[in-house]
Amino acid sequence: MRDLILAANWKMQVTPAEARDYAADFLTRVRPRLGRELWFFPPAVSLESTVRSFLDRADVRVGAQDVYWEAKGPFTGALSVPLVAATGAAGALVGHSERRHVFGETEPETARKVQALLAGGLVPLLCVGELLADREAGRTESVVLRQLDAALTGLIPAQVARVLLAYEPVWAIGTGKVATPADAAQVHRILRARMTALGAPARCRILYGGSVNPDNASGLVAEPEVDGLLVGGASLTPEGWAAVVTAADAA
Ligand code: PGA
């Protein structure tokens, strides 16, 4: 059986009460499994309720969808690492394509967020991925490596080793177009080589994300290069997410 990280990104949905109901249902469907870690990324307002709902499950961790790098102060609307940590969350997404392409997050900003999370003892789940135009122009590798290098600027090897990575091709997110397992594995191989060159162990974890569903999950994690999944749409119901987890477990 593979060691896997299976992560649910709820984006801008799931209220605190809905998170409680979701967890109660999901927990009856999915038992802990050795070597498999589950993450949930609820909207900020539902972090605490999600943490509480999974308190009895050591295999479940909860993270924020974004953070700001300053610890406190006059930054209206922003969420600091200490505020996230105070909810009991264990990490945060950084550089999700919607932060980059809808909200204009820059590569230097992703780096500051990664640094702030590491300094605060939380796990960054850094997302990288190319636009369709990049892929069609043969720039996939150069784009994801540029994003990775930018996000890890200034980190020492021991810090790089604490970063989780997700490869999420932008053209596959929420579109129903999934990368083939072979295409995902190819990009993961390149990312892993760079991660190890920067100090991460060879078995550093690299997740795939983008239109994952119960039908394609097992084919993706069957690739030894794919250490887990980051899932949006298919994680929004407990039965849907349980179906993805079950399919990945079976790979
Ligand atoms: P999707 O989203 O599974 O709905 O494509 C993935 C993500 O944005 O993390």
What does this protein look like?
This protein is α/β, with parallel strands linked by helices and 251 residues long. Helix content is 40%, strand content 16%. It is built from 11 helices and 8 strands. It has an 8-stranded parallel beta barrel with strand order 1-2-3-4-5-6-7-8, surrounded by 5 helices. The structure holds 2-phosphoglycolic acid (PGA). 2-phosphoglycolic acid binds next to strand 8. 2-phosphoglycolic acid binds at residues 9, 168, 173-174, 209-212, 230-234.
| Portion in beta strands | 15-25%
Name the ligand types: 2-phosphoglycolic acid
The overall strand count is 8
Shape from CA axes?
A: globular
Main sheet: which strands, in order across? 1-2-3-4-5-6-7-8
Structural class label = alpha/beta
- Helical percentage: 40-55%
Extract low-pLDDT stretches.
none
Any idea what the radius of gyration is? 17 Å
Average predicted confidence as pLDDT? 97
What is the number of helices?
A: 11
Largest sheet: 8 strands, parallel, barrel
Q: How far apart lie the N and C ends?
A: 8 Å
Q: Provide the succession of SSEs.
A: EHEHEHEHHEHHHEHEHEH
What tags apply to this protein structure?
single chain, 251 residues, alpha/beta, 11 helices, 16% strand, binds 2-phosphoglycolic acid
In brief:
With 251 residues, the chain is α/β, with parallel strands linked by helices. The protein has 11 helices and 8 strands. The chain has helices at residues 16-29, 47-53, 81-86, 97-101, 107-119, 132-136, 140-151, 157-160, 181-197, 217-221, 238-250, and strands at residues 4-9, 36-41, 60-64, 91-94, 123-128, 164-167, 206-209, 228-231.
